[in-house]
Design a protein that fits this description.
Blueprint: E1 2-6, H1 11-22, E2 26-31, H2 39-48, E3 61-63, E4 70-74, H3 80-90, E5 94-97, H4 106-109, H5 111-131, E6 136-142, H6 166-185, E7 189-194, E8 197-198, H7 207-216, E9 220-223, E10 230-231, E11 234-235, H8 236-247, E12 271-276, E13 282-283, H9 284-295, E14 300-303, H10 319-325, H11 333-353
Parallel strand pairs: 1-2, 1-5, 2-4, 5-6, 6-7, 7-12, 8-11, 9-14
Antiparallel strand pairs: 3-4, 10-13
Helix pairs in contact: 1-8, 3-5, 5-6, 7-9, 7-11, 9-11
């Protein structure tokens, strides 16, 4: 297939692009390469895929020196006309939309960035898909949409109308917008609610990255809610495998759907929502312990109260993904953390001496 992946300078997009390229798909990657975190990491991810940072010019497609079936374009999703022109020229079979303004805490201080990237940007993707006969739009939602929901494990069949951060609200809005386009224009859309993805080349604003850096540098780590938190940490390889299976299968309408008892995860339209997680929540203190054991050093811990916008626990019910796609996350926390720490040490050692 010929697939557009947005966010390919980002963590998940980088890994997904390489996976699809290596199985033989033709991929065009798109990213605006913003400075939400150190752009050097984004350029280095692109470099791993054969995209030379010095050759990147805004709005121009660049070929990969590593993959003959990969091209990249730096483009902002709010830039509607160049985006539409890209769709017209390239005739994509499918779109995997991963680009977004990420981060719960950042949304408390920079709300407009989320409206522009996550709402306006997604609107432009939907319009481009609608007008260019895209066979399947797969897009990133988030576990954050569960908000004040305390029924565990989190199920896509439960109502999620009470988000506790603007980031979560924009992701819930994406699901509603996608359903509208599936209903009005028969655009097949599948939303994936990601649960705390981690692994090599991960984001510096995530806990694993922050904790690893602090422990190695003998700096304190902030342990929120006094350590009384759980997350359904999901290793990147398990995420990529699940996303790939979803891309390959178009959603169809649910003939059992009824407005008297509506299932939030489906519709008579070609629309579907899945959780994609590990289905095995890990206590924060156990997570920290896994990092300490891999590094061989105890963390200096500063216990802090719960932060605004955070939730105490996440736990993904992935039974639908298992039933429909035989999805089976297989990476335990010790193995995944170990691989991340190995990557982190190698990457920053190379930067230091390059």
């Amino acid at each position: 297939m010929k697939i557009l992946i947005t966010g390919t300078a980002g963590f998940i997009g980088y890994h997904l692009a390489r996976h699809l390229l290596e199985r033989g798909d033709q991929v065009i990657g798109l990213d605006n390469i913003n400075d939400y975190y150190d752009p050097r990491l984004k350029y280095d991810r692109l470099k791993q895929s054969g995209i030379d940072g010095e050759s990147i010019q805004y709005g121009m497609l660049v070929g990969s020196s590593r993959y003959s079936n990969y091209r990249f374009i730096q483009l902002d999703l709010q830039d509607q006309e160049p985006l539409m022109e890209l769709f017209r020229q390239e005739s994509f079979d499918g779109v995997c939309h991963l680009a977004a303004q990420a981060g719960v805490r950042y949304s408390l201080t920079h709300p407009h960035a989320y409206v522009e990237a996550n709402l306006v940007g997604f609107m432009n993707i939907l319009e481009a898909c609608r007008h260019n006969q895209i066979r399947h739009l797969v897009y990133a939602s988030s576990s954050s949409v569960y908000g004040m929901n305390e029924v565990m494990p989190f199920s896509t069949h439960d109502n999620v109308d009470h988000p506790v951060s603007l980031y979560a609200a924009t992701k819930k809005s994406n699901e509603l917008m996608a359903h509208t386009y599936s209903h009005l224009y028969e655009l097949p859309t599948t939303g994936l609610r990601f649960f705390t993805v981690y692994g090599p080349w991960g984001r510096p604003d995530m806990a694993l990255f922050k904790f690893t850096r602090a422990i190695l540098e003998d700096q304190p780590i902030h342990v929120y809610n006094n350590g009384q938190m759980q997350r359904d940490f999901t290793y990147i390889d398990d995420i990529v495998e699940g996303v790939t299976r979803v891309i390959d299968h178009l959603p169809s309408g649910n003939p059992q759907w009824t407005p008297r008892d509506p299932d939030p995860s489906s519709s008579p339209a070609p629309y579907k929502i899945y959780n994609i997680g590990n289905n095995s929540p890990v206590h924060l203190m156990d997570f920290i312990r896994a990092i300490e054991e891999k590094i061989g050093k105890e963390a200096i811990k500063e216990f802090m109260p719960m932060q605004p916008g955070d939730v105490q626990k996440t736990w993904a019910d992935v039974s639908d993904l298992m039933k429909d796609f035989d999805y089976k996350p297989a990476t335990d926390i010790s193995t995944g953390v170990g691989r991340f720490v190995d990557w982190y040490r190698a990457y920053y050692h190379e930067l230091k001496y390059s």
